[in-house]
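Bumping with the actual sequence this time:
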Amino acid sequence: SASASASASAPSKDIDGKAIAAKIRKDLSERVTKLQTTRDLHPGLAVILVGSRRDSQTYVRMKKKACEECGIRSFGHEFSDDKSTFSQNDLLQIIRELNDDPKVHGILVQLPLPPHMDESTILNAVHPSKDVDGLHPLNNAALCSTGTHHKDNNNNGGIIDWKDLSSVPFHLPCTPQGCIELLDAIGVDLKGKNAAVIGRSNLVGLPVAMLLMHRDATVTIVHSKTVNKEDVVKNAHVVVAAVGRAHMVQKEWLREGAIVVDVGINSVDDDTAKRGYRLVGDVDYDGCYDVVDRITPVPGGVGPMTIAMLLRNTVNSCER
């Protein structure tokens, strides 16, 4: 039919995270080569895994493979989650050694940790300059400071260029940074736009809200106690969904022409899929597709960007 052929020729509304991440990784490979040839430096990332969770093992494998492709050295440290053989103090000792190791520019602790380990104690032990996940309280505090918008005595007279996230002098969390890079790649000007962030986690919701604000968007954080969530979200030009609830955001929530970044990765049962399940986002992609201007698919949207930002933080750390 005519309408079918018209929609077939219409450009995709997908924000292609795979392609955008591939371009960033290519640029990183060039920076790594330059570091080796001009300064005899070789970026190195230490990846710590405690326990044998299958999903964590998969993430760690992906991160190591991505390092190899960019020429970044990866140092794997895998330990048992048996408290009697590997304690919290043992892990803290490993982190201290990695903090002092000049070959290691980034340290990544794969979460979640086993119950006998205190997450914040472990993450706080990583030196802020090597905290490539951007989760250390000092990096978090730097992100939450608006003193960086004007010259002041404490900021060495320097203003952070929030338009170029690669130049920010401390580590930003990977997924939030990836969300902004996706918006940049498709040419979204955030200045003065209404942005709704759905979810208030320390990992994504809060830091991505701060980054949007540094770009001069007007930001609303939507959470479980927000009244009339749909109306709040419908007011937004840009929506970042990061709640971990499959298809929570329906098309009635979105204004015509919204730009949607879907951070959610949820598995839902699907008898037709080989594995018996498929991955979906927090946004009902099929239902919302006609309403949006652009949207990230799941998978293939935010996921590849998270790893690209981890690699970029590691290279930044080496360059500094």
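The tokens above came from a reply further down the thread. Strands lie at 44-50, 73-79, 106-109, 194-198, 218-222, 238-241, 259-262, 266-269, 277-280, 294-295.
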